Amino acid sequence: MTRTSDRTEVVKKIIVFFDICSSTSILEDLVRTENQILWRNLLIDLKGYVRSKQSSVGFELYKFLGDGWILLFGPQLEGLNILQFLQSLSDKFVSLYKRHVGNVLTTEIPIVGLTFGMDIGSCITFVMNEQQEYVGRPLNVAGRLQGAVGQHDSNPSE
Description:
Number of strands: 5
Strand content: 25-35%
Structural class: alpha+beta
CATH superfamily: Nucleotide cyclase, GGDEF domain
Distance between the termini: 52 Å
CATH class: Alpha Beta
Shape: elongated
Number of helices: 4
Helix content: 40-55%
Order of helices and strands: EHHEEHEEH
Radius of gyration: 17 Å
C-alpha cells in the first residue's frame, strides 16, 4: 500500500553541523556539583536563539544531537550570510556559557565555543515516524568535518 509519507524527493541543501566544545567536561563538572539544570538552561536558551534566527537567515533547525544541532540551508543562500550567522551563533554561545555555567564550574575548561562542519549537496528527504528526515553524503561529510575539527585543532572554537 502506498502512502503519501512513502514519497521521496531529492533536494539540494547546505548542511551545517555544529557542536559544543568540551561539552563532556562541562557536563561532568555540572553533574558532580548537582548543577546540571544549568546545562539544560543553556541549551534551551541556545535553541531559542537559533529558532529566533530561522526565518531571517533562512534555515531549518533539523536535529538536536546531545550537544549540537544540524541546520539545513537552501542552496541559494550566500556563504557569507551563513558564516556571519555562525559567527553570531558562536558569540551568543559564549555569552550564554558565561551567564549560565562559567562561574559555577569547579574545573577549568580550556576550550569553550562551537565547532562546525559544513557541506553542500543532494539529500533524499522522506517522512519516517511522522517526521521529515534527510539522508545523504552532505550530512555525513558535515558531521565528519565537525568531528575532525574538534579532534585535530588545539583551539577549535577560534
